[in-house]
Design goal:
Elements lengths: L1 E8 L7 H10 L7 E7 L2 E7 L13 E3 L4 E9 L2 H10 L9 H12 L9 E9 L5 E5 L8 E5 L2 E5 L2 H7 L8 H9 L15 E2 L4 E5 L5 E5 L16 H18 L7 E4 L4 H12 L6 E7 L10 H10 L3 E7 L1 H14 L8 H12 L5 E3 L4 H4 L6 H5 L6 H9 L4 H4 L13 H10 L7 H13 L1 H13 L4 E3 L5 H9 L2 H5 L5 H7 L5 H4 L9 H4 L3 H11 L2 H6 L4 H9 L12 H14 L3
Parallel strand pairs: 13-14, 13-16, 14-15, 16-17
Antiparallel strand pairs: 1-3, 1-9, 2-3, 4-5, 5-6, 6-7, 7-11, 8-9, 8-10, 11-12
Helix pairs in contact: 1-4, 2-3, 6-18, 6-20, 9-10, 10-17, 13-15, 16-17, 23-26
């Protein structure tokens, strides 16, 4: 787990090494254990290292395969790197290190861009072929590891974080109206390849991009489950599905224990993280370090779920750590969390994850997290509504159920120059759901949520907040084989028992029933939900700042209406509308835009 960056020039001139160095330094928190920079002709690569696998200097990056003349940088972890190394040795390759980075170089040498099909893991990488001058960029199937791009007519820069590209300089920071429309429609999600900045894009998940020396490029999307009932599963009943899911999750959790340092678990006390702990205990893991965070109550809302996480910790005898955050710390922690965001994120748990990661990083370098289970196994309360219509009616039902607001509402919020002429967010959903596959209405919704909304909201949130403290988070529910299995699972088994039915049945084999059958919880941060005093002061300060006035993104009449009643204006999904608007402005100001 690390931070990579680089630059490729298309005019034959040498890259701006000072800019590449600035990008690398901005990612120091992602890789506090080492640094490196490499340049050859029109290409430069830089790397910040977090030592997880092969702690020696033989794992240093950028790494070069001198025989084949390939140099690369890599962020993430290839969980099956040991098996691949043995396979590659059998094919005649020799290794100098025990790192997964070297496995990537040799795998590319052996299989070309098809190497990604063999990787089990989370990754973003950049490889340079010395002879051809070609640059190859790749990203994992579920977009767990980020890769941001900033291109001009003569140059491409890339980095693991958007702020790193800003540190390099010369980025078009004007706002992208389509991305702002998505942000205000989808609970702050902006789908790849866009970001809210017109000059920054993201390499989509499950994509390999080959960039030629003249700047031309081609993309290959190498993975996408069909979300149909596969023939090999037609004779399976509920108990067989339960066992298949449990076996696949067990494998996913086991894979994510691969490390040369201890691995802990972020334990909320919900079904998903509790299952991870139970499976690790079942595998013989002892004295597993687990971590939970809670906040002071505000407005009658509980701010912690310690009663559940404590129960799981006792049940499996973990080395449990509890962090209680006072309300006054939320407002001060907010600025640090926003600084860590590669893109603006409004979910309250972003602050929780940032504060938790700060403490966890003092104890371990790697944790497993339950992120992704709700999208993969249909755990949210709105999925039954999405499943209740015909397949062709799903885009409209999805917009009614999921969107924060309809397109028409944006006209009274945004200045005219920032408002697209038509409902671009709705059109995105219609186009995505029109792609072949996705047998039922629920399949279409889960495909969109898993491969778009999940990637650019919860998954990004976990990466940004943990990596700001040099902490690697692994997400077994996004193991691609488990996702493929879940995609083929009959919708009624996922919707059963109030959602995640097949996963709950698996949980009953390992967990106390009160943990499985508890009401669904969320990561509560009451100080933000109820706009407690210091948070509201921060919001008002940002919206009244000279930068906000110059930007003029939102209509004054709309902002006046929100600030007159800070806690009353809600999106269709119940989020605080003022928080959504203010967070975007706070993020822009924090990053000097």
């Amino acid at each position: 787990m690390c931070g990579l960056s680089g630059e490729m020039r298309f005019d034959g001139t040498r890259p701006d090494l000072a800019a590449v160095q600035r990008m690398s330094e901005r990612q120091a928190a992602r890789g506090p254990d080492g640094r490196g920079i490499w340049s050859r002709g029109p290409v430069a690569l830089a790397h910040r290292r977090l030592k997880i696998i092969d702690l020696s200097e033989l794992g240093h990056q950028p790494m070069t395969d001198a025989e084949q003349q390939i140099t690369g940088v890599f962020n993430g972890c290839i969980y099956n790197y040991k098996e691949l190394r043995e396979e590659l040795r059998g094919l005649g390759h020799s290794f100098e290190s025990t790192s997964d980075t070297e496995v990537i170089l040799k795998a590319y040498r052996q299989w070309g861009t098809g190497c990604v099909d063999r990787f089990f893991g989370m990754f973003a990488f950049a490889l340079v072929e010395h002879r051809s001058g070609r640059l190859v960029l790749g990203r994992d199937r579920l977009g767990i590891k980020p890769l941001y791009l900033a291109r001009t007519s003569g140059r491409l820069r890339f980095a693991s974080s958007l702020p790193a590209l800003l540190a390099g300089g010369d980025v078009d920071t004007s706002l992208d109206p389509v991305a702002v429309h998505q942000y205000l429609s989808w609970h702050a999600t902006v789908a790849a390849p866009r970001t809210v900045l017109a000059g920054v894009r993201k390499l989509p998940p499950a994509t390999v991009r080959v960039v030629e020396p003249d700047g031309s490029h081609r993309d290959h999307c190498y993975w996408q489950p069909s979300y149909t009932r596969r023939p090999e599963y037609t004779d399976m009943g509920p108990s067989e599905w339960r066992d298949a899911v449990l076996d696949a999750l067990r494998t996913a959790v086991r894979r994510r224990m691969v490390a040369d340092v201890p691995v802990g678990v972020l334990l909320s006390g919900g079904l998903d993280s509790s299952l991870i702990v139970a499976l690790l205990a079942d595998e013989g893991q002892r004295d597993l370090a687990t971590f939970s965070v809670g906040f002071e109550s505000e407005g009658g809302d509980d701010g912690d779920e310690f009663r559940y996480s404590d129960q799981v910790a006792r049940e499996f005898a973990t080395d449990h750590h509890q962090l209680m955050v006072p309300s006054e710390r939320v407002s001060t922690a907010l600025d640090g969390a926003v600084a860590a965001m590669s893109e603006p994120m409004i979910s309250h748990d972003v602050v929780a994850f940032h504060l938790l990661s700060e403490q966890v990083a003092k104890e371990v370098k790697v944790v497993q997290s339950g992120q992704g289970a709700d999208e993969v196994f249909a755990g949210y309360h709105w999925y039954p509504q999405l499943a209740s219509v015909a397949r062709e009616a799903e885009p409209d039902r999805y917009a009614e159920t999921y969107f924060d607001r309809p397109h028409g509402d944006l006209a009274r919020m945004l200045q005219p120059d920032m408002l697209p002429r038509d409902d671009v967010s709705g059109r995105f959903v219609r186009d995505h759901m029109a792609v072949p596959g996705a047998e039922t209405a629920l399949d279409a919704a889960l495909r969109l949520d898993t491969h778009v909304m999940l990637v650019d909201d919860p998954v990004k949130r976990v990466d940004n907040m943990t990596m700001d403290w040099g902490l690697e988070a692994r997400v077994p529910f996004l193991d691609h084989e488990l996702v493929e299995l879940a995609a083929a699972c009959p919708p009624d088994l996922k919707l059963a028992d109030g959602g995640k039915g097949v996963l709950k049945e698996a949980g009953r084999k390992l967990l106390p029933h009160e943990v499985v059958d508890r009401p669904k919880g969320y990561f509560p941060v009451p100080a933000i939900t109820h706009m407690a005093g210091p948070v509201l002061d921060r919001v008002r300060g940002a919206l009244n700042a000279p930068e906000a006035k110059r930007r003029g993104l939102f209509k004054d009449s709309y902002l006046t209406e929100l600030m007159a009643a800070p806690g009353e204006h809600r999106t269709k999904r119940g989020a605080n509308a003022l928080w959504q608007v203010a967070l975007l402005e706070i993020w822009l100001q924090t990053h000097g835009i």
